[in-house]
Amino acid sequence: MKNTLKSIYLNFRKYLFRVFAIFISQKRVFHDRSGPEVKKILFIRIDRLGDLVLSTPAIKALKEKYPRSKLVVLASRANCSLLENNPYVDHTVIYDPSKNLWTKIRNILQLRNYRFDLAIDPYADYELKTALIAFLSGAKKRIGYVSYGREIFFNLRAPEIEKEKHFVDLTIDVLKPIGVISKENNPEIFLVGDEKKWARNWLKERRLGTKPIVGIHPGAYYESQRWPSENFAEIVCQLKKDNSVDLILFGGPGDEMQIDRIASLSGEDIVTYITDDLRQFSVLVSCCRVFICNNSGPLHIAVAVNTPTISFMGPTHKNRWMPIGDIHKVLRIDDLSCIGCNLGYCKIKTHDCMELISPQMVMDAAEELLKTKSA
């Protein structure tokens, strides 16, 4: 019933916006590969952690297309630090969703002071917020995906959304109408010497690093994406058994209870690190030989700092969210009829897609990665 009502709303909105578009006076440009006049660019990425990380290849391709332009990224307060030291980003503007509506509108309208030549909204779904931001930015040219009427806010239109494409490729594809085509799809986070020195000192203080470090992050945005705490506790026990590796149990704000439960169930003395500082988190993950996690933002941070990963994929859309690169192991029960439902809850109430991934499967993958990395 809920999906039916959603479909009715979206289709009604699409036709309503088509009528409304008649009253929006803007010059439509369907293919524009001109470049010299593009001096200031706005790239909008205010959604979740992994989305920003996976947008870095598109940001790089865009800057390489317009190397003399000023490229400004609008990012959320929680995620913007991941763009620090990125050589392809000239400036970051913070969007704070916690502010009241008037403050958010005022801050968005202040973007007009930049006098952008081009605004890019790579969001590949039906929500309107980022399309409105692109429109209100005052950019002369605006580009974004066609989706249930949100396209009326753009005058350069991207290709249709291809649902089977990876998130990285979708984000790059939105740039096609301006002639940007890139086959480089590796996400990147740029860590500097002081950050690496801090990580070395942090590890030294805790007597970590003489053995390979295995990082474990049990959190995820949706409950349905989380591997059971009992299983995480089991792999902690297994990894500690022969004392051949060091362990760090990572978490973010809100993960405290789960971290405590895993530590309690394992009965092991394990170093934990719970933080909202994404720079420190990223540099510590870069020190890990293997990183074990759910399919969530921390997974894509690990990929971006070139740390081999073992991740659990249940309801997540496989083609859209696979980690980039051949040094990563993805554990998924592919033969379930409901696999990849993309829901934040289990509609059949078994959660088999995560429950059937066994600790032994993780240990087998970890053993292989540890051997490969040390070879």
Short key terms for the protein model shown above:
single chain; 375 residues; alpha/beta; 6-stranded parallel sheet; 14 helices; 36% helix
Structure, explained:
This protein has 375 residues and is an alpha/beta fold. Helix content is 36%, strand content 15%. It contains 14 helices and 12 strands. The strands form 2 sheets. Strands 3-2-1-4-5-6 form a 6-stranded parallel sheet, covered by helices on one side. Helix 7 crosses helix 10 (278-286) and helix 8 packs across helix 9.
Question: Gist?
Answer:
The chain is an alpha/beta fold and 375 residues long. Helices cover 36% and strands 15% of the residues. It has 14 helices and twelve strands.
> Which sheet architecture does the biggest sheet show?
6 strands, parallel
- Category by helix and strand content: alpha/beta
Helix content, binned percent: 25-40%
Strand arrangement across the biggest beta sheet = 3-2-1-4-5-6
Order of helices and strands: HEHHEEHEHEEHHEHEHEHEHEHEHH
Low-pLDDT runs of 5+ residues are none
Radius of gyration: 22 Å
Mean pLDDT: 90
Shape from CA axes? globular
* Count of runs of 4 or more consecutive helical residues: 14
